């Protein structure tokens, strides 16, 4: 079936559904707008919340549909241990595209930031400053964000000329018996027309990872045993500021800033026992891996409401991140002697500059139109230096005293200039039905200089339809048809350190990479149970993809096989999702909130190495997650537990010389929290898996290209980072 026939059928179906639903609406004269659900501050009083996030965690449906917290506010979900071929930086392009998840607003406004955004502020806003929380289920030109899900609007009191100081002291205890302290301070308040939020945070991140690997040769005889211990410290330090100023009744401005440090220091010890010889021989190597990392961001926006009902808004973001990584490996001769055999230095600076302006006007009753333009400049400046003890040439002090190795595309700058023009039409067809139509036209220029010179131009037309209908005040249908374009990761364009394979040092870049595109068809039905008893929803989706990004052959010669992230052609994804967030009032326990998620999905692409039909390697087959949180107001106590299991079977990752299959144990997470004297909250939680589950990978290595089907060895690798317990103490002055 061609894409054009799919679009024609979708349009016919949309017209038929619209006609049917219009008749239903016209038959009900008493229809009212029921797209917004409001939770006043006193709704949360019995739970004694400390922050706005605490309040949101008590609302049914928020954990299930947002994709953020798990049941009971327990974070954590399975993730791939090795980067997928997806290659993109994640998400879609453009500030105006909110994607499919829930979007967060503060006082009806978005935060002009990507690292410092509204969702990150919820843990820093004191609960006493929150007037009410809106769950906006419809579409409107008055909203600052566009998305296919719901909009969560946290509204603060306007008449408070006070300030508050929130604090958090914490200690994380890991399974290697290390205790790491941290903490946070947030100072927020209002002074006449000024709202402000100042925050400082120090978050510990210590991890001890144990990995064991058993490999056999292609004839199934023993090969070697590998044991690796990795101790990594990656504390995060962050300063942030958010300011909102109401200039007058018609205009307002917001400004935010962020600065962060996130250095990483890892010590690795690896023992490899050769089983092919008798007696067995063990080789020990040691690695020092260090990354000096910092980032900053500035953002601001200005809004002006005109006498004619129109609204003008301009938004700007500037951010930069800097990584300077050094990996040095040593062969351990004995307890006092070691010999360096690898030096690998990678330096990367990412810069992003975005400005977006738009004008919104009222067309007719129930209709408004937004038109605007967005310009973005994204730059990656990347440098890589590699040296070994076995290369030919002269050793260099600038390369750690080893012999430099020439690496193709090691020093490059990649720049993209993207301009997007957009028009958004919102139409409230009647009190129950709304239709949002979007048309975007994007032009893009990607230029690469340095070791490689290349310049390419792209243009995309990206339409979208978002249709919503409230059958009843508690039953809503949502449907979207959208053309999407993924955001590229510029690190896929250049040579980069390969941290996923101990037998490889560098991954090649691909200067011909282009954006992944998709036509996405989604339908969702949501039912809100009476008396705030819960929310259930179900959705189906079908994504018709172009230029799918996975591993491709970029070999410079038949004797030097190399692969990189590249475009492998067309593909498809489809599936079903269901969420349920229910209060157990039916059994007399209304303060128990259960949350479950179920996803079943599949995909199909043509493998570029073998020419076979297979699943995409970055798209899991599905998952099931369930859990609960129980509030006991009489004891000022709440606790929760979650279980998350990913469907791992028969999802392989194909590369030019190997095939990988991943699997892992389910994740268990838990917490217990008590509000003690003076409103101080004590919370004990598992920062990582409660049962210290294993993540495993089977890698089949081949001699030469995998199409030759000459099996060299099979590696069975399993690792765990153990459990980590965190104690948090929160309070507000």
Distinctive features:
733 residues, mainly beta, Maltoporin, Chain A, 2 domains, 22-stranded antiparallel barrel, 4 helices, globular
CATH architecture of the largest domain: Beta Barrel
Shape: globular
- Rg over alpha carbons: 27 Å
Number of strands: 39
CATH homologous superfamily identity of the largest domain:
TonB-dependent receptor, beta-barrel domain
- Our count of domains comes out at 2
Low-confidence stretches: 1-33, 64-89
Strand content: over 45%
Helix percentage: under 10%
- On the 0 to 100 scale, the average pLDDT is 87
What does the model show?
- The N and C termini lie far apart (63 Å).
- The model is unreliable at 1-33 and 64-89 (pLDDT under 50).
- Helices cover 5% and strands 58% of the residues.
- It has a 22-stranded antiparallel β-barrel. It has a four-stranded mixed β-sheet with strand order 1-3-4-2, with no helix packed on it. It has a two-stranded antiparallel ribbon with strand order 22-23.
- The chain is built from four helices and 39 strands.
- The protein has two domains: 1-30; 31-732, Maltoporin, Chain A (Beta Barrel).
- The radius of gyration is 27 Å and the shape is globular.
- The chain is mainly β.
Layout: helices, strands, pairs:
Elements: H1 3-26, E1 36-40, H2 52-57, H3 62-66, E2 103-106, H4 118-121, E3 130-136, E4 151-156, E5 163-174, E6 179-191, E7 194-203, E8 206-217, E9 222-233, E10 236-246, E11 251-261, E12 264-274, E13 281-305, E14 311-332, E15 338-364, E16 367-388, E17 403-405, E18 411-430, E19 433-450, E20 454-472, E21 475-485, E22 496-497, E23 506-507, E24 517-529, E25 534-546, E26 549-553, E27 563-567, E28 571-584, E29 589-606, E30 613-614, E31 622-632, E32 637-646, E33 652-654, E34 658-664, E35 667-675, E36 681-686, E37 695-702, E38 711-720, E39 724-732
Parallel strand pairs: 2-4
Antiparallel strand pairs: 1-3, 3-4, 5-6, 5-39, 6-7, 7-10, 8-9, 8-38, 9-12, 10-11, 11-13, 12-13, 13-14, 14-15, 15-16, 16-17, 16-18, 18-19, 19-20, 20-21, 21-24, 22-23, 24-25, 25-28, 26-27, 28-29, 29-30, 29-31, 31-32, 32-35, 33-34, 34-37, 35-36, 36-39, 37-38
